[in-house]
Amino acid sequence: MSHPSLLSASLALLKRDLSMTLTRGGGPLLAVGFFITLMAMIPLSLGPDSSLLSRIAPGVTWLCLALSTLLSLERLFERDYDDAVFDVLRLGPLPLELVALLKCLSQWLGTGLILSLLTPLIMIILGAEPSLALISLVAALLGSLSFALIGGIGASLALGARKGGVLMALLVLPFYVPPVIFGAGLMQAAQISASPLQALSFLAAYALFALALAPIAMGAALRSALN
Amino acid sequence: MPHILMVTDLSLRKGYNLLIHKLNFTLSSGEAIGLTGENGVGKTTLMRTLAGFQTPDSGAICATENDVQIESEIWWSEHVHFLGHQDALSPARTVSQELEFQAAYLGGDLGKVAPLNLKPLLDLETRYLSAGQKRRLSCARLLMAPRLLWLLDEPMAPLDSAHRALVAELMQNHLEEGGMIIAAVHDALPFATTGLRLERPAREVAGV
């Protein structure tokens, strides 16, 4: 009987899901397009007052980042659920918790990472100081990772429900609040040259919390949805 | 190494409906069970329970190797293949991508799938395949990663007669190598199988 190693199976799944995230259903382009369009509408709706824009740029960017990551989450488990691919995944060497975590990670690599790379750029376009670029990138990376993991819990809970997307947004958005608060707070602290360390630690703590909790929650939710 | 699968007093529910009441059977290496019964009697539910996808209402499923019990997690992750009536293929990925993924994920050897003659299909996305071609592609994972028990839910339904004969031959080879098969079928398989006919539980038992 065959004994596939955990590592090679994990890499195979990560590779498959990443290629699916990148190529299917618009992939990262959809999220990036949404992000940029949303940002372009802000000066149009608030007027071209550059002092106002530079003040609100970090907070608004964070909000848009949260909304853009929400966009592609609905399909996270749904595709494989509809195609019955879970029949294969469940009889493989990986526990369902790890399968779910790898799916979230590939989702993050395919969209969240790209959105994070865009975040400093967009903040600067809106009028934030260029010196904030590095810290905003770090914050966006941590934030989008939490968004992807928490979003994965929502996606697994909404799996199998008709029009699960709206339900998922309702479930997930309250849990997006802490990273938004810490992330935007971090940027405000950096703007007034206060130490961003405190907010950054909270942001990192939340990402780690999500990393620890999400696999267990997703595993349980998937098991019940697939039953 | 003789393996035995023992199912004792298995009861299954779907929602509040009692589908199967106290089912008992034993399956040893080299044997096949042909599962029959009318539509909706619980064949697929039984197969999915045997694959570990659903928890039984009561009763036990126990697999042993040389009279030593195999832990259920190991049993399902290393010894069982399940082929449902959905083919578990992603429509936008090509046949070769799917084969490579399954081989890497299940720890299989792609060299073993040659009898299925999938070469002409390799570059096609799976959504362009016919139902029969999809089924042939699904059968590939039975061959690439050798596992003891094959759970097949109407494996022959979409196949043409030549491929039915081929799959029957593959199943016989599997049995000769000491494998086990449980197949839900409407037409009898062209080799010796133990018949198991599912009946609806009596009304008193079902509590309706």
Helix content of chain A: over 70%
Mean pLDDT of chain A: 88
Mean pLDDT of chain B: 88
**C-alpha Rg of chain A, in Å?**
18 Å
| Count of runs of 4 or more consecutive helical residues of chain A | 9
Order of helices and strands of chain B: EEEHEEHEHHEHEEH
Segments of chain A where pLDDT lies below 50 for 5+ residues?
none
> How much β-strand is present in the residues of chain B?
25-35%
**Distance between the terminal alpha carbons of chain A, to the nearest Å?**
27 Å
- Oligomer state of the chains in this structure: heterodimer
Q: Which chains have the largest interface?
A: A-B, 31 and 34 residues
Alpha-beta classification of chain A: mainly alpha
Largest sheet of chain B: 5 strands, parallel
* β-strand amount of chain A: under 5%
Count every helix of chain B, treating DSSP H or I runs of 4 or more residues as helices. Answer: 6
Please give the domain count of chain A.
1
Please give the order of strands in the largest beta sheet of chain B: 6-7-8-3-9
DSSP strand tally of chain B: 9
Model regions low in confidence, pLDDT < 50 over at least 5 residues of chain B: none
Content-based structural category of chain B: alpha/beta
Q: In which range does the helix fraction of chain B lie? A: 25-40%
Overall description:
The complex is a heterodimer of chains A (227) and B (208). With 227 residues, chain A is an all-alpha fold. Chain A has one domain. The model of chain A has no long low-confidence stretch (mean pLDDT 88). In chain B, 29% of the residues lie in helices and 27% in strands. Chain B is built from 6 helices and 9 strands, in the order βββαββαβααβαββα. Chain B has a 5-stranded parallel sheet with strand order 6-7-8-3-9, sandwiched between helices. The chains are: A mainly alpha (227), B alpha/beta (208). At the A-B interface, helix 1 and helix 5 of A face helix 2, strand 6 and helix 3 of B.
Task: Outline the secondary-structure elements.
The complex is a heterodimer of chains A (227) and B (208).
Chain A: H1 6-23, H2 27-46, H3 50-71, H4 75-82, H5 86-90, H6 96-125, H7 133-157, H8 164-191, H9 197-226
Chain B: E1 3-14, E2 17-28, E3 32-36, H1 43-50, E4 58-65, E5 68-69, H2 72-78, E6 80-83, H3 95-106, H4 131-144, E7 149-153, H5 161-176, E8 180-184, E9 194-197, H6 203-206
Helix pairs in contact in B: 3-4
